[in-house]
């Protein structure tokens, strides 16, 4: 799979050198020691010693921070790089400029006239999955085609769509009188090998209904979507039960309730359950189009929640890859070379990208790389990075023209 740009013009090998801080995306070991890495055919093949080889392209990070590309685990895509909810075109390619190199669909729920009958629901999921498998705006990897659970769906329906490539599902927007009634569909989807994300908290759009902590404990989805509220949060006691008495995956989003996020993070750290946290944007929704949504959440959790910035970065990358079995999200040999180079923004007193996040500042992004291909050499959305990368041989910024990106 290639990006929108001609893959034939891209080098087969790239070395990233002069890395100041290496963020691994690994929850257990967020920081690496290598000061360089080698990419071959879009895959990370070496950590350390990459500056001594004959790579066709050399990217000098200039002492900046290199980490895995961010994964938006809750991005409301529909079809094409367009959001009907906010009537915005090109939001995904703009999200790449926020360091997001992959995203995961929580169901194409904003499709106008979205069907609720079994054939229509299945057709939409398959269409979206096939479409996003072939379309990568600005190189972004979009995991789309999440089947929306409805009472009419049977075990055979889930096996059918799974055989066609659908592996995601969303619960919370079907025509159920009581969320507890969705238990058969959740279990049937999981039995078919489909990952189920459930809405959590108050109703988010007309026609949806609140889903409580008690519902989540009954349904036991693979992921508690926007457990900090989307945007309305669960009750405090319910949140404590979900954190302390279950092993459910807890998704925190920018379009949720910050107070609840901080409460969840405190409880998670108290019991040593950091591996259960993942981040997402839950946009575009009523909150709007937010290219920096994931970075802003990271800065909030690091500065207000006191969470180490390396761990926060892992919550937005490798932790999500672990939950969804993705080949990206970590700076690790054998993984896809999806990387973000960033530094403290001009004017920040953070010192580097990690320090900026700890102060609550959004880092400045100086390069975004997806599958080893440079997609941007300067973010048009973050503040300017204090350090600009240099590339040898020289290349123009792929996004220098607004008509390209």
Q: What is this entry, summarized?
A:
The chain is α/β, with parallel strands linked by helices and 405 residues long.
Overview of this structure, please?
This protein folds into two domains: 7-68 and 330-392, Urease, subunit C, domain 1 (Roll); 70-291, TIM Barrel, CATH 3.20.20.140. Helix content is 26%, strand content 20%. The chain contains eleven helices and 22 strands.
Number of helices: 11
The end-to-end span amounts to 19 Å
**Helical content, roughly?**
25-40%
For the largest sheet, list the strands in their spatial order. Answer: 3-2-7-19-20-21
Principal-axes geometry comes out as globular
Q: From the alpha-carbon coordinates, what is the Rg to the nearest angstrom? A: 20 Å
State the fourth-level CATH superfamily of the largest domain.
Metal-dependent hydrolases
The structural class is: alpha/beta
Q: What's the rounded overall pLDDT mean?
A: 94
Q: What is the architecture of the largest domain at the second tier of CATH?
A: Alpha-Beta Barrel
Biggest sheet architecture: 6 strands, mixed
Which percent range describes the beta-strand content? 15-25%
Total domain modules:
2
Q: What would the CATH topology of the largest domain be?
A: TIM Barrel
Q: Which segments are poorly predicted (pLDDT under 50) over 5 or more consecutive residues?
A: 1-8
